[in-house]
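Hi support team,

I'm opening this ticket because the web form for multi-chain structure prediction keeps timing out on my end. I have pasted the exact lines I submitted so you can reproduce it. The total is 1998 residues across six entries, so I didn't expect it to be a heavy job. Is there a limit I'm missing, or should I split the entries? Thanks in advance, R.K.
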Amino acid sequence: MAKKVITFGEVMMRLSPPGYSKFSQATSFELAYGGGEANVAISLAYLGVKATHVTRFPNNSLGKAATQFLRMHWLNTEHVYYGGDKLGMYFLEKGAVHRPSEVIYEREGSAFSQIKPEMIDWEDVLKDADWFHWTGITPAISEGAAQCCLDAIKTANKMGIKVSGDINSRDNMWKYGKTMQEVMPELVKNCDIVITSSYGIHQILGLVEPDDKFRYSAKRLMDAYPRIEKVVGKTRKSISASHNQIQGKMWNGKEYNKTEMLNITHVIDRVGTGDAFASGLIYGLMHYDDDKALDFASAACALKHTVPGDVNLVSLDNVISLMGGDTSGAIRR
Amino acid sequence: MAKKVITFGEVMMRLSPPGYSKFSQATSFELAYGGGEANVAISLAYLGVKATHVTRFPNNSLGKAATQFLRMHWLNTEHVYYGGDKLGMYFLEKGAVHRPSEVIYEREGSAFSQIKPEMIDWEDVLKDADWFHWTGITPAISEGAAQCCLDAIKTANKMGIKVSGDINSRDNMWKYGKTMQEVMPELVKNCDIVITSSYGIHQILGLVEPDDKFRYSAKRLMDAYPRIEKVVGKTRKSISASHNQIQGKMWNGKEYNKTEMLNITHVIDRVGTGDAFASGLIYGLMHYDDDKALDFASAACALKHTVPGDVNLVSLDNVISLMGGDTSGAIRR
Amino acid sequence: MAKKVITFGEVMMRLSPPGYSKFSQATSFELAYGGGEANVAISLAYLGVKATHVTRFPNNSLGKAATQFLRMHWLNTEHVYYGGDKLGMYFLEKGAVHRPSEVIYEREGSAFSQIKPEMIDWEDVLKDADWFHWTGITPAISEGAAQCCLDAIKTANKMGIKVSGDINSRDNMWKYGKTMQEVMPELVKNCDIVITSSYGIHQILGLVEPDDKFRYSAKRLMDAYPRIEKVVGKTRKSISASHNQIQGKMWNGKEYNKTEMLNITHVIDRVGTGDAFASGLIYGLMHYDDDKALDFASAACALKHTVPGDVNLVSLDNVISLMGGDTSGAIRR
Amino acid sequence: MAKKVITFGEVMMRLSPPGYSKFSQATSFELAYGGGEANVAISLAYLGVKATHVTRFPNNSLGKAATQFLRMHWLNTEHVYYGGDKLGMYFLEKGAVHRPSEVIYEREGSAFSQIKPEMIDWEDVLKDADWFHWTGITPAISEGAAQCCLDAIKTANKMGIKVSGDINSRDNMWKYGKTMQEVMPELVKNCDIVITSSYGIHQILGLVEPDDKFRYSAKRLMDAYPRIEKVVGKTRKSISASHNQIQGKMWNGKEYNKTEMLNITHVIDRVGTGDAFASGLIYGLMHYDDDKALDFASAACALKHTVPGDVNLVSLDNVISLMGGDTSGAIRR
Amino acid sequence: MAKKVITFGEVMMRLSPPGYSKFSQATSFELAYGGGEANVAISLAYLGVKATHVTRFPNNSLGKAATQFLRMHWLNTEHVYYGGDKLGMYFLEKGAVHRPSEVIYEREGSAFSQIKPEMIDWEDVLKDADWFHWTGITPAISEGAAQCCLDAIKTANKMGIKVSGDINSRDNMWKYGKTMQEVMPELVKNCDIVITSSYGIHQILGLVEPDDKFRYSAKRLMDAYPRIEKVVGKTRKSISASHNQIQGKMWNGKEYNKTEMLNITHVIDRVGTGDAFASGLIYGLMHYDDDKALDFASAACALKHTVPGDVNLVSLDNVISLMGGDTSGAIRR
Amino acid sequence: MAKKVITFGEVMMRLSPPGYSKFSQATSFELAYGGGEANVAISLAYLGVKATHVTRFPNNSLGKAATQFLRMHWLNTEHVYYGGDKLGMYFLEKGAVHRPSEVIYEREGSAFSQIKPEMIDWEDVLKDADWFHWTGITPAISEGAAQCCLDAIKTANKMGIKVSGDINSRDNMWKYGKTMQEVMPELVKNCDIVITSSYGIHQILGLVEPDDKFRYSAKRLMDAYPRIEKVVGKTRKSISASHNQIQGKMWNGKEYNKTEMLNITHVIDRVGTGDAFASGLIYGLMHYDDDKALDFASAACALKHTVPGDVNLVSLDNVISLMGGDTSGAIRR
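Hello R.K., no limit was hit. The queue was backed up. Here is the completed structure from your submission:
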């Protein structure tokens, strides 16, 4: 029977000039929607998992259109709440070779940032779920969002639902009066699976002498927070905006494992590739052993680089085929 | 020698689904920029007047792109100020026949709304100008915007520059703690030309027994504020979203004048038609007598209904030809 | 509490040259999906009704995309069945003024046409439903489709669920060996509400001396099939492909009622306007008396003419406003 | 057996901003090709006539693309000659309601304008042909073009092939040193059928006291040039750029005939409607009596107003149906 | 004098989401047409060869549009036959890097599949021709198509016209009751030139102990079918969907020859590259010795990877330049 | 304070089929504008330099639109002169891998080519300027253009304004009766900075025994024309149309310097990359020492390959970052 995953976080309208046009040339924007956690949910839905995304949109045609995007991509949207004034937005100018992509956010004061704990009955939301996933972006948005996230994690803990957190917060996101170090530890220590980098671990633990090696950082995180079963990361080598390399890595308390490096020679859309990795990891851990789960995550991540938009729309077949070593991309008829 | 006009007000990014698509169908947005006062300035520039628009944008690629739009359409942008976080936006779904167009604003907290009087040296801005134009939207945006507007009007008065105001504010726009009735009278009474409706006059004067007839309302406004030379309005008959009729009307203290009704049987874009009227009126009063000025304003307004976007891009020839009674739209080779 | 409606029928991929281009000019097609019954379901969903559409698609990316279209437009798709080879398609070239629109179907052998009664458990599908709607297209597609439709109607009858049928079948659609006259009467006589024309009634009853007046035909249909409570139709006056007039009419056994003629002076997309009428009627009969229900149906039908695609995406507010006589289409901010 | 028509004239690249955008807004152009005589040939080809267009293009990818356009629209292109430097072009900004369409030509020095009589063996070109058609634009382009046109007409006369000329030249087109009055009479007097206006007749005949009535002008033309069998014209009433009315008229030496006025309430593309009239007339005269031929011409002309591009792509069925009085534009399935 | 080639086979409508969008994201399709044999004919036409394609389309606007595509790309279409119900179609989602392209066919019951031997008079079709080309797809479509193909080959044999066959049939295409092994040998053994792979040879000959080396397989095919003069193939190395390598190889009964490997580092459209190879081979064998012919075929094949659509639209200059070793792609002004 | 640069030269309309489509497939053109010198001015404007471009356009909507393009991209256009008939144009078909881009010019008889020395008051134009830049294209266009260019250079010399010339003229451009060798030396010898290649130097000096090494050629040029301070060039290695490598080189009379080779693995638009190099060099020489100036020029050049259109729209930050060795193109949030 299909597994069921719950995700929680903001979904933004994504506006991008067509092709490789710059903002200074655009006379139209391509319109999509995205957000780290919803990206994970949708990718899982395309892999065959039942996925519900919990979020909040303004109660107008734009909030409805954002919901429609989630529905179109197979999500259950019964826990989308409506209210507030504004849909968070981001603008993406796509780079190439030596020219970086540029992202501009307009998300302050969004309907999601005004979310309050009393708006969500997590026991109801998490009923029948197998997994809850959150990211480090959510607690950075507002005190309400952080509190909702903590409530969700604790409720999931109580209900015996696995919790994974993707801890990739940037310091400059925290603008509502609390610091990452004040808020994150309580959230991270109740996770079963943590996806992060050495740098992320050092930020959370407030380490003064950080360790560059992922495996040692991971060990220190698991020492600090014993509930955590696995710490998972990926190495991205950005040869250029058009050519990236990806390698997954995992410390599960016993073994340190790394995947083959995957070589994405013609990047189509790099946004959301971390979320594709997270979704691949969740799917993998649900269906395979740790090694294959990591391979699955890396393959999913690599494939996302070829899909326009925030979301990994590839099929289970595509991921399994790449995971099995077929990098040929040979046409399917 | 070409006249010089200064306008002041917010410019928003305008995003609209292509053609007659609804928000619930859109996968791209057409991108333009607009704002009542800048619309007036640009239309005047296409008629051959030198026009400078004063506004404030965030100091990022989007704020630059908005400036580029003004430059492309011939405005002087040396008094565009940069700062703040956010570009005001509006979303426009175009209606047809019985289906209304729908507009959604996301302009709270915009760079313009955070404008402060000390940011603008009006004596410098208004140097060599012949005319200053503002609208009732600006004082509704924020206390700072209202104060800047008042400063501009008073400086213009002092410098002997004509002032026109387009008083079409809606009550539900006033959210920063002051009411229209507290703020507007001081602004209106220093104008030379006022463009408004009976309803607008009643709002400003706080009349309890309003008068439906424009000419009597206009007279009362000029009685109350003796600086005002002319009160100008237009009647719009909305037969449907696709078919409007327009008629200009003016009370100049001596005569009440109305134009022929112009019949816009195939509306292409109704947004900004009021601004086209205002720009036509300003051009008209600069170059013709009152009667012809009103004809020019009506013709400019009618033509705007056929131009996509907020702004009236038609040529002086086009307006003069329609003002002269040629409604045939016959092809020019 | 929101009502729940079930619809059943084929959904086709709709491919149309952009704008007013002809097939002989097209280098791209706009892509949408549509089918009489799903059109009704989606329109009802936009009005706030819970709607489930039952259909069958090939189990490939195209069948999935068709399902995604239904989900995006708020339908419950848990009773979409997958199998067979092919997605039905239709090509639409949009006409204007004296130039007719042209429709080409490629639906033979579609997944839906191969549907079999044993694939659907109607008691399960219709659980908690308030209404079942079908159209005369479905029994014309294949023996299996006709049988499924009959099963649905009979199950609905048994479960006390209202049944409406839109009987607008064309003789040239019946290609699988049975005639309209052999199949339709059994389906029609178990309906509570029938939407049709005088001509449709004559076809079903096999009348040799047809009556041009809708009210008399309607009476004859209700005499023949006493379960029917109301017979509803509309008059379309096609002044040109770009200008249509619409008037609803209903015989409810006691009164004959007609709505005001609505004048659609600038048709955007005429396809699916009959389905919009049907969905408006269903909504109306659920929430109003017969007279207002008919007004609601006519208003919904008129509004559809301004929405691109097969489906009426307008809001409840839009319909109520037009039903109340506001034909101005004045902009909503 | 299908009739065969030969046409001769320049074909230009046509570049137009999308939709109703103005030149000052365009970031792309829609690309098509057109020219009065080729427009006639293509329209005839869509009606089932064999049509060959004779012209000259530069021997590069643009000249090839222009040829491909003619081939795509069913013309025989074996008499397209290659050479010279440049493809003639025109830019079209589409107007609406009171806003005129604007056309800018860049055709000087085109490959066609450099055509020379020795490049064309008219006896070979006209072999098996039933009809030769030219327009007044061709002799205005260059001395070589005028001479080729005269050669064609005289050869056709000799070979017993009907000749029709559409005499709608504008004085401001004649830039190569000769005037219309010097060149045209020789061309016109060898025609069998002349399509023109009262004004055109006066220009050709150099009348000082012109006659407003078409029938009298036509008579004078036929008196002057006895070879002419019929003089045909149309009245266009341009209510606006979006609404035109069309009426055909013909003097055949015996009777003066006018068609019903056709009411084109929603003009899509007005360019080439005169050519559609000419093609309709040619088809009509080949297949019907004079009265019906004129009806056919008017119907073809009216239908062209709804087809984007220069060329009338409608089918014989469409024209016959409108000619028969069906103005409903009702959808064809 | 230009050579003349005849090809025979189905042409399908090709619908593909724009850019790298997936089916699950598409709201429009790019529209083109393609089919292995017509692709060969068009490529030859761009190289300067006279080419006629023989096929069958439904007698409606879609069948006409398909014919227009062939005409636009310079084919002689006088042997396109009309009838039947349906135009074959295929849907193409373009992959990148590790993500495979996906093709979905909807061609069953197409007008072409219903073709019958009596519809084509091959002696008339092949009159004046120098070459006949077919592919292994055609006999897999239907018994009628297979029979027509055999008739064509035998007529060509009789008339002394060279016959080339591209034998790349897939087993899962054969659905009409006959197997590849029953039908193909008769067709292949009457060819002069066979394009195929080792695998293809083994399928045709029903070899139980296949030989991996192309040269030995080729020899066995020529031993079995002595009419065959040359067996030609290519090696494709699919490094990824975005990066392919191509190498031509030929056994002509005396020598085994291979070309340099061509490195297509940025694939734009991989579909039809095999057909480009075949057309290059035919052109090459018509104009060069075997070695240069193979170089020409490889260069044509490599260039096709950079052209959107099924068809190789490059010029003779382009192929000759690459054949001569210029891989720089340096801009031509 | 921002530096001020003046450039002089023709600006053409640029029309290109979308994406990688060939001319033979296009049904629309992307519209932009470009010209070597204006490209330099715009790139400098994006780097923060004040830039004025001097040119001439026809006095119609197309000439205005070209001016609007310059204004939108931040240029001062007060010295755009209007007159003449025609806007120069070029058509660009974008190549990939082994397929070359193809450029077709239609610029003969353009408004710019008819420019006359008396139209420009160079003392007025160059007032307050720091730099004047021209290219070898301008003197090839017409005698008037060459004379204007010489006037500008001499006036700049007199006013103490630096002069840079980009000498990349092709022999086949010189069509008005003078040869490159007659005209160029006078222009080149009054430059302070010359950008060229060994080949360019040999052409100008009329060397019979050219030297392949750039440094020796440069030395000879500086020996011949002692005013020249630096001779600058770049090596382009065109691995394919999609993959280029760029290296800057400079002889400043004392040292010969070369930059690192920059590897542009995914070319988006190669047109205007030489102009980007020139603008980078000018900016660099204004703000850095020679070595860093050359690095800046190379980085600017490399980045242009990723920007659609003629013009380098990247920011100062982007160039500095690449100049500093960051080739990662990592996303900026």
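A quick check on our side: Residues 201 and 220 of chain A are 8 Å apart (CA to CA). Let us know if the file doesn't open in your viewer.
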